[in-house]
Backbone:
């Protein structure tokens, strides 16, 4: 199957071509026709599967077919994090390059210039608004956001949004939308609260579920059993002066831990930087850019960005600790082996966290290879 089979608008097909996408991914194959038919949809799909394209492409195609002006918001995409809002907006810009469609990303941050830019863009209007719930509500309260023209609502990473406590915000935004609209919901997992939300806001949805919660097969996973005070030395030996590990993502569960790992790596002369929610939006973007450009070798991150970031060619993901939630494990290691490349994911497990890791193995239905700790000799 290729993208020509979907009857997408020629401008959007040109955008797809210029982005270098040749064949649709499985979620795109299944979701695009359903969305083009105007049906509601609930899709269980993780980042890395091409889920952004799965909703962006048909929605852009529908928008491109409209002859109306492009200053009315026809599509609202609600997402959990600024990183995801920016990434979706960037993909839209690429796909919509040859069409008159406009989009705005609306997300939080303490930067006043950002607020003014978002305000001006919202006042000027655009076909698509991609927003985090809290910041959108702040703009709505100022009175210049009109959502009564919205025809398509998309909730992306819905499970993450509920985990982050956005339920009430989402519902208060939805109240401002026309009842007659197309609603699409994407979620990596389908717990009870997501099913309930789907019942409330979707109308006879088509359900698509790809086999989720399993890491891509081309990720080599391994575990080191070790003590906390051995972790840094081991990480050091895995990455230092190794030409074949140029881009490493290290995950830890808390901000404090992330900052401390960053400090210690720098002391050990490794080009490392941390990214977490204490950083201003611009600082986060700078760090991500430096990482993408290979100016830094190691990015140390909390789970909050494990879903959002879209960086290809990460050689190695290291779980400096075991994530509490097996789903987070899948998301963390899914940052390597993006878009058909191979990747390696290593998890550091101390004695205390062994039970937690057993839970992950049970969830995955497999046993992860344990490497002998070279520091235990
Ligand atoms: P996503 O699951 O939307 O986060 O997408 C994961 C990555 O796959 C992104 O880097 C996309 O640019 C890329 N991607 C999505 N769809 C395709 C496609 N049909 N062909 C090639 N790459 C794709």
Residues:
């Amino acid at each position: 199957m290729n993208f020509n089979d979907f009857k997408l608008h020629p401008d959007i097909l040109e955008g797809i071509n210029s982005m270098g996408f040749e064949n649709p991914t499985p979620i795109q194959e299944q979701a695009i026709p359903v969305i083009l038919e105007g049906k509601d949809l609930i899709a269980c799909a993780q980042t890395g599967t091409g889920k952004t394209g799965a909703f962006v492409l048909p929605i852009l195609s529908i928008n491109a077919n409209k002859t109306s002006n492009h200053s009315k918001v026809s599509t609202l995409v609600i997402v959990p994090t600024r990183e995801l809002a920016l990434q979706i907006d960037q993909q839209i810009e690429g796909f919509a390059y040859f069409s008159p469609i406009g989009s705005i990303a609306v997300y939080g941050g303490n930067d006043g210039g950002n607020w003014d830019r978002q305000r001006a863009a919202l006042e000027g209007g655009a076909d698509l608004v991609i927003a985090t719930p809290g910041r959108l509500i702040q703009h709505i309260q100022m009175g210049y956001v009109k959502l009564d023209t919205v025809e398509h609502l998309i909730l992306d990473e819905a499970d993450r949004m509920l985990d982050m406590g956005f339920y009430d915000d989402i519902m208060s935004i939805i109240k401002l939308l026309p009842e007659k609209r197309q609603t699409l919901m994407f979620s990596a997992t389908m717990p009870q609260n997501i099913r309930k939300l789907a019942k409330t806001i979707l109308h006879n949805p088509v359900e698509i579920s790809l086999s989720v919660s399993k890491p891509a097969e081309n990720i080599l996973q391994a575990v080191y059993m070790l003590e906390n005070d051995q972790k840094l030395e081991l990480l050091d030996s895995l990455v230092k002066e190794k030409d074949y590990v140029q881009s490493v993502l290290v995950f830890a569960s808390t901000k404090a831990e992330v900052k401390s790992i960053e400090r210690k790596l720098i002391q050990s002369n490794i080009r490392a930087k941390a990214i977490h929610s204490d950083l201003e939006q611009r600082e986060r973007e700078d760090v991500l850019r430096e990482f993408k450009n290979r100016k830094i070798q190691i990015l140390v991150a909390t789970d909050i960005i494990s879903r959002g970031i879209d960086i290809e060619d990460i050689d190695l993901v290291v779980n400096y600790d075991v994530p509490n939630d097996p789903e987070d494990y899948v998301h963390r290691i899914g940052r390597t082996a993006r878009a058909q490349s191979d990747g390696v994911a290593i998890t550091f497990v101390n004695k205390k966290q062994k039970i937690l890791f057993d839970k992950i193995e049970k969830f995955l239905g497999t046993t992860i290879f344990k490497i002998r700790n070279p520091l235990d000799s």
In short: Residues 21, 24-25, 28, 47-53, 310, 338-339 surround adenosine monophosphate (CB under 6 Å).
